[in-house]
Amino acid sequence: MMEVLPRRPAPIALPIGSDADLARVRQHVRLVATELGFGLVQQTKLVTAASELARNTLVHGGGGQAEITPLEEGHRTGLRLSFVDQGPGIRDVALAMTDGYSTGGGLGLGLSGAERLVHEFAIETGPGRGTTVTAVAWVTGVPAPRSGAGPRRPGAR
Amino acid sequence: MRVSEHDAAHEAAAQRVTDFLRRRREQIAQRWADAPLFRTVFTVSRDEAVEACKAVVDALAEVAADGRLEDISAPGFAAVRDQLGRTAASRARTGSSPAQIADEVAGLRAPVTELLRGEFADPSAPEAHEAVLTLAVLMGTLRLVVMETALDAGEELIERQRLQLMEVATPVIQLWDGIVAVPLIGTLDSARSQVVMESLLEAIVDQRAEYAILDITGVPTVDSLVAQHLMKTVAAARLMGAECIVSGIRPAIAQTIVHLGIDLGSVVTRAGLADALAYALGRQGIVVPGRPAAGASRS
Amino acid sequence: MTVPSPGPPSPVPVLALGDILLVTLPGELHDATAEQLQQDITERIARSGATGVVIDISGVDIVDSYLGRVLAEIARTAALLAARTVLAGMRPAVAITLVELGLTLTGLTTALDVDRAMRLLSDPVVERPEAVDRTEGSP
Q1: Residue of chain A minimizing CA distance to B194
Q2: What pLDDT is attached to residue C127?
Q3: Is residue A28's pLDDT more than 90?
Q4: DSSP letter assigned to residue C126
């Protein structure tokens, strides 16, 4: 990294219009999550959730944009990911949230799976009104795993 | 609902207090540095205490200048939270209660009030009263802010200790080449099982372990949530290429699992840790002659 | 902010080691690249008569449901062509996330690293009948 980033990264909006954009969204989410102090597992969950939701925006919403917003609330640090499209909207949110329900040829785990990867999750939609999916995760204090009361520990991984 | 005349008087008083705080910054800080709140934290350097006090005075001046005397969310207090928060946190760590800390903050009021009174030729004049009252309100708000910060710090402390305990309580042990085990002791909640899962998976990578034993002998109860956590750990280990064995299922827990209708499905289970180890060794082609504990094993 | 631009997706190379195809996935995989890989592997198996495929994902940062589906489909397609697929080196964070996501890839054989994956494929005795049998049957 060439520059020292500010303590709290600024909100970022990224377009979602292609495969390459999905990759860019993943990279940005990873970068910001790392910057905010999310642990590796949480980073991975966030990036995965972002990937699912961004693909949703691309496939079902006909593209749109991703907003990555760092949050600070008292002692908590968090990250909000919003995915906004002007597509047809979701007719039945409860149905779309069901595991295995898919209209896009995927595994149908996009929305429901992403919800399980974050702390807060909301969908704003309606037929013809487009869709905004918002996911929030907070940095949890779960300590980084320290392995090994084992007799030997290979030093590097 | 204030009459505008009152408002003007309030504003004038706030302005007067602001000016006072800015002008007498040095003196106030010098006096506060000797107050218990700061003295007990900055034991090494008095200069540091004075600097810390100045930061608080500046913050109060900013809040007064904004006229947000009673607003604990005034931006000016951010610096106080930062400064006194650290102070309060270090006090909380050494065992001071938030009430004690709040008392010490209250103790800051007298020296500064005395200084303020001295500003007026006639300390009984209405402006003097108004200014002292304004300062009292401001100091009261400061106390609330500190109290709040101290409570947060206390909660943080508890949280940190809880996490430390969790980490201590979940060691991953290498039993054999390629076999690791976690003896779980105590209640498994979500946060703890997260730690267990991460520690175990990291150990699988570190030790190149193809077998991981989760021993639940020390887990008092297994409800569907605990079972779910176990299943998740087993599934994650499998994705990495390791096999998990759950051992130490006491008869009572076995019954609970059946009663609750929990399906441990594809999970390999064994009665005791020794049985699980024997199973893992067997899978690696190592034959163990004789069973470790007589009677304890029927597989 | 300096985020390296993802760059144009280049195809993932498929190496042949005897009867086994080895594929090392890069850290970041575009959807189209993954789809292309699926085709490449299928064609290579058909052409070379490979009996095993090892997919090394130790460098992969995340597996989402899309990549998960592609991997599962590669395994199923390979199985139709009589080749076994082993997924090697999944990172702990990725495994935890996949489980949380609800994707346990039960039909796939896994190994800690490429080395063990190769051994698994070369020595049928080392295969884990228990893990595979029990999970594949469940709904």
Answers
A1: A142
A2: 45
A3: yes
A4: G
Contacts of A23 in chain C (CB under 8 A): 6, 28, 30
- Global pTM value: 0.68
C58-89 pLDDT tens trace: 999 999 999 999 999 999 999 999 999 999 99
Domains identified in chain B, total number: 2
Residue in B77, B58, B75, B67 with CA at minimum distance from that of residue B14: B67
pLDDT at position A115: 92
Contact B198 C138 (CB under 8 A): no
Considering the domain architecture, whether residues B106 and B180 belong to the same structural domain is answered as no
Give residue limits of the domains in chain C: 14-132
Pairing assessment for the beta strands A64-73 and A120-125 based on DSSP bridges? unpaired
**Between A and C, how many CB-CB pairs are < 8 A?**
90
Q: Which has the closest alpha carbon to C74: C37, C104, C48, C109? A: C37
* Per-residue confidence (pLDDT) for residue A157, from 0 to 100: 35
Reported as a single tens digit per residue, the pLDDT across B166-199 is 666 678 889 999 999 999 888 777 777 888 889 9
Identify all chain C residues contacting A28, using CB atoms and an 8 Å cutoff. 1, 3
Chain B CB within 8 Å of residue A155 CB: no
Instruction: Please give the pLDDT value at position C63.
Output: 94
Question: Phi, psi (5° rounding) for residue B104?
Answer: -65, -35
Q: What is the mean pLDDT of residues A66-74?
A: 91
Contacts with B205 from chain A: Cβ below 8 Å: 157
Strand partners, C85: C53
Give the CATH number of domain C14-132; options: 3.30.413.10, 3.30.750.24, 3.40.50.12370, 3.30.70.100. 3.30.750.24
ipTM above 0.90, yes or no: no
Mean confidence (pLDDT) of chain C:
83
Give the mutation candidate from C2, C97, C103, C106 for the A interface (greatest A CB count, under 10 A). Answer: C97
pLDDT reading at A149 higher than 70: no
Range of the domain at B137: 4-166
Q: CATH code at A28?
A: 3.30.565.10
- Give residue ranges of C with CB < 8 Å to any A CB: 1-6, 9, 28, 30-32, 61-66, 68-69, 91-94, 96-97, 100-103
Q: What is the DSSP string of C1-51?
A: ----------PPPEEEETTEEEEE--SS--HHHHHHHHHHHHHHHHHH--S
**Domain of A130, in residue numbers:** 12-138
Q: Is A152 inside any structural domain?
A: no
Structure tokens at B247: 């051992």
Distances, alpha carbon B102 to alpha carbons B43, B92, B94, B108, C102, in Å: 20, 12, 15, 10, 49
Looking at the structure, tell me whether residues B132 and B223 fall in a common domain: no
Is A3 part of a structural domain of the chain? Answer: no
Question: Considering only CB atoms, which chain C residues are within 8 Å of A113?
Answer: 65, 100-103
Domain of residue B154, CATH code? 1.10.490
Q: How confident is the model at residue A152 (pLDDT cuts 50, 70, 90)?
A: very low
